[in-house]
Amino acid sequence: MASTKVKALVIGGRDFKEKDKLVELFTLEQGKLTVSMKGVRGEKAKMKFAKEVFCFGEYVLENTKGMNIVSQVEIIDNFFGLTSDIDKFYEASAIVDIVRKTLGVQANPQLFIETIKALKCLCYDNVKSLYVIDKFLINIFKAMGYSFLTSTCSSCSAKLGDIRYFNLGVGEIVCPSCKNGTCISISPACFSAMKILDQTDYEKLSTIRLAPSSEVEVYHLLEKNFEWRTGERFISALIS
Ligand SMILES: [Zn+2]
């Protein structure tokens, strides 16, 4: 029997048989993997915490008949704080949903590290609501090759003034002359909020304050951009 150890974050799962669970792992080494955890829904199961979404640890897998069965787990962090604060829980759940919808079949160490950093920041730092998911999305778009926080129009290269439009069709920012039907206007406050989020590391996110008017605008813009870039919608980070 071949056994492998992977660093992984639980991003989903479903009940299977009487007490088993098929768990969806985002692993550092192999990307997305569905693994079987036997008996973990039992009251006294040793690995019962390791099956829950947000659990981050080292999972030992035994490959039997093409199926990966978890034989041992060493939990690094289960980000317990995320489940005791409803706002953080929604935001973290949205981040995990974005990961599920972004992740291809291959390993993606950059996204893995980004996700752990985001969850850590959300769980342990006193960060204002939506700042973590906004930064996470900006970085996701950057990893996809979109750098939209530029000072010039992406279409004609003219220097941008205070009137900017986000062209959802191409995922970039344009000037008033290049505006077309897939453009939405973005306020100067929204643009500068995204720049600040982009330039601030996760470790420092708790020290910044953005213009209140821009907070929800940034989130909705990034949410919409995600839909246009991927054709997918992620679950809302907002309670209502
Ligand atoms: Zn232009």
Please characterize this protein's 3D structure.
It is a single chain. By secondary structure, the chain is α+β, with helices and mostly antiparallel strands. It folds into two domains: about 1-75, OB fold (Dihydrolipoamide Acetyltransferase, E2P), CATH 2.40.50; about 85-95 and about 130-230, no CATH class. Helices cover about 30% and strands about 25% of the residues. A five-stranded mixed beta barrel has the order 1-2-3-5-4. Strands 7-6-8 form a three-stranded antiparallel β-sheet. Strand 6 and strand 7 form a beta hairpin. Helix 3 packs parallel to helix 5. It is elongated, with a radius of gyration of 20 Å. The N and C termini lie far apart (about 50 Å). It binds zinc ion (ZN). Zinc ion binds near residues 153, 175 and 178.
Protein traits:
single chain, 240 residues, alpha+beta, OB fold (Dihydrolipoamide Acetyltransferase, E2P), 2 domains, five-stranded mixed β-barrel, three-stranded antiparallel sheet, 5 helices, 32% helix, binds zinc ion
